[in-house]
Amino acid sequence: VYVLLVAGAVTAALHEYVDSAVIFGVVMVNAVVGFIQETRADAALQSLRALVHTEARVVRDGRQRTVSSEDLVPGDLVLVEAGDKVPADVRLLRESELQVDESALTGESVPVEKSEVVLPLATPVADRRNMMFSGTLVTGGSGSGIVIATGSETEIGEIHRLIGTAEVLATPLTAKLASFSKILTVAILGLAAATFALGLARRQDAVETFTAAIALAVGAIPEGLPAAVTITLAIGVARMAKRRAVIRRLPAVETLGSTTVICSDKTGTLTENQMTVRIIWTPGESVDVAGSGYVPAG
């Protein structure tokens, strides 16, 4: 893309406005297709986040009320019971046979028994029995506690922050395209320089020789390659979308197509570690059971 931008600027400087318009048009198509795809993917992700919107029961001014988890602030008194998703990092004040599934945070598939016991500050996250962490699930009992952290300040928020600041690795396709672009740039510049030097050696007009060298360089650039790659990947994204797969970055399509093995911690990713009754058989009939996991509704 950078090579095309330089080529477009050079052709415009040489008053080759048609060629310049074509080159900039290709760059624009490439940018627009990528922008549209990322916008659609972001919209789909926002819709998914809206589906998992959580609420919390709090005590404010001596009255119990239900608020959005986004409206919680440190110092709020939160009440939880079986089936609730913990809305923030909470220090327990009271509990009754409280158990919490922390697999989403620690990977531990067995529910953790909680207690109001006082622990040292250096206690590892997985051993903090007096804490409930945002994103974990209450599997049994009930309890109450004080919110000490919300949003990005929570333990799960810290993980998200680290993921966001992690180095973005190049996919096989982008790595090959980057390598090809470097080789192509060196080759084109070499040919243009050789053409210009040869023209000067033959005592040709310097301006005409320079123009010919630039024309050679511009003509050797495959202007349609970026657009062709982008459109091809966009078609792949559209096909994946029909199979309910949300892909945000276009190059990920090629990487996914080359994947043979996916390693994943199933608990909290593919499963919720919540045994659920789906059908009840009685001597006279069978009954389908609605609902999911430990949520009491259904």
Q: Secondary-structure element sequence?
A: HHEEEEHEEEHHHHHEE
Q: Could you estimate the helical fraction of the residues in percent?
A: 40-55%
- Span between N and C termini? 54 Å
Number of H- or I-type helical stretches = 8
The rounded Rg comes to 30 Å
When the domains are counted, the total is: 2
* Number of DSSP strand runs: 9
Low-confidence stretches: none
Briefly, what is this?
Helices cover 44% and strands 18% of the residues. It is an alpha+beta fold and 298 residues long. The protein folds into 2 domains: 2-48 and 169-257, no CATH class; 55-163, Distorted Sandwich (Calcium-transporting ATPase, cytoplasmic transduction domain A).
Architecture overview:
- The chain contains eight helices and nine strands.
- With 298 residues, it is an alpha+beta fold.
- Strands 1, 2, 3, 4, 5, 6 and 7 form a seven-stranded antiparallel sheet that branches. A two-stranded antiparallel sheet has the order 8-9.
- A hairpin with a 4-residue loop joins strand 8 and strand 9.
- Helix 1 runs antiparallel to helix 6 and helix 5 runs antiparallel to helix 6.
- The radius of gyration is 30 Å and the shape is elongated.
- It starts with a helix and ends in a 10-residue tail after the last strand.
- 21% of the residues are buried.
- The mean pLDDT is 81.
